[in-house]
Amino acid sequence: MPEEIGDLEKLVELNASYTLISRPPSSIIRLNKLKLLTFAKEESEDRVYFVFPQVNEGLLSLEELDLSYYNLIDGGLPEDIGCLSSLKELNLCGNNFEYLPRRIAQLSALRSLYLLNCTRLKELPGLMGMQYLDTLDLSYCNLIDGGFFKDIVSSLKKLHLCGNNFEYLPRSIVRLGSLRFLDLSDCKKLTQLPEFPQQLDTIKADWSNDSICDSLFQNISSLQHEISDSHSLSLRVFTSWAKHIPSWFHHQGLDTSVSVSLPENWYVSDNFLGFAVCYSGKLTDITAHLIPLLCDDGMTWKLALSNHSKCAAQCTIHFFLIPLVDLWDASNANGKQPNDYGIISLFFGELKAFGVRLLYKDESELCIGIRRSRNEETSCSSSKKQRSQVEVPVSSIPMQFFPTSPGF
């Protein structure tokens, strides 16, 4: 690259991708109308180390800088990189530095910082000066427990942590009040999810891990649900990607509706949290119907499902919890208790792959009985007769489920 390139005063974009340039001329900083500058590659070449010149308060209009896979090591980025006052997107993926310049935190206009596959990174500097940062990608950076989340700004909306080696996330992540998207996929050592920030609605994780599924719903159970009127309940929904309904859900199928036969004494006060539900495809409101053992109308609620995720409907599943504490209407119970109800029915309105599970705070010592399904009851009066009860761990209960018909 010639030294005279700095004389191109009107240059707006400069693409030097896939070149062998290792040290751009210092005159490049005089390109004060330049908005995009890239030296990106697809793979880092260890033989050539890249060094970016001192900024010296130049490149005044630069908004995008892409140095991905260009074999940057410590010292390859200028100490005064924080002088790039217009920079909105910085791509440093696939480089070999262990530390970033401290003054990188002075990039006050930065919105996106990409550090994917920076496997030698040992420390992330405080980012509190990046008041508009909304996307941070630290995927496959060999992150372990501790350290990296001390000073991440509250403006962050998307956090990518895919493929790292931590076993847990710090509780401080709940302070990311603007966070909407969290990617924890391929984090093979992760066994539980942290307490969620209030705005989070999309999360990627290993749903084949039962512990991850359980901690998701334990977290959801701690969130507040809003009762909008006497027969409507607004539920918070978390959206993700998955090819199949997770095996953690005991009851699975494909239909427009489902009924789950509840076991004997399924409700345990101070332990039962609600009905964990997931389904695939487009997010739609559903109807829940809690049906008593005796023949009467039961309780019916319309569930308004709220989520602002921008995921494509074809690839998504939605997780939500129907809490009995909000669903229960004592005025319509006619003296009955929760265990006097034997079936919960869910109506999706369209064909869905679904999963349902009864959620408890602690299942380790929980023993409840098996109740015969309605198909085994010969009449309404027969439900008053003595039913056999067998004590078994809840995780092994073969609760029955079956599609409902419109006239159920």
TrEMBL record:
<keyword id="KW-0677">Repeat</keyword>
<dbReference type="Pfam" id="PF13855">
    <property type="entry name" value="LRR_8"/>
</dbReference>
<dbReference type="Pfam" id="PF00560">
    <property type="entry name" value="LRR_1"/>
</dbReference>
<dbReference type="InterPro" id="IPR001611">
    <property type="entry name" value="Leu-rich_rpt"/>
</dbReference>
<dbReference type="InterPro" id="IPR050216">
    <property type="entry name" value="LRR_domain-containing"/>
</dbReference>
<dbReference type="InterPro" id="IPR003591">
    <property type="entry name" value="Leu-rich_rpt_typical-subtyp"/>
</dbReference>
<dbReference type="Pfam" id="PF20160">
    <property type="entry name" value="C-JID"/>
</dbReference>
<keyword id="KW-0433">Leucine-rich repeat</keyword>
<dbReference type="InterPro" id="IPR032675">
    <property type="entry name" value="LRR_dom_sf"/>
</dbReference>
<dbReference type="GO" id="GO:0051707">
    <property type="term" value="P:response to other organism"/>
</dbReference>
<dbReference type="GO" id="GO:0006952">
    <property type="term" value="P:defense response"/>
</dbReference>
<dbReference type="InterPro" id="IPR045344">
    <property type="entry name" value="C-JID"/>
</dbReference>
<protein>
    <submittedName>
        <fullName>Bacterial spot disease resistance protein 4</fullName>
    </submittedName>
</protein>
<feature type="domain" description="C-JID">
    <location>
        <begin position="243"/>
        <end position="365"/>
    </location>
</feature>
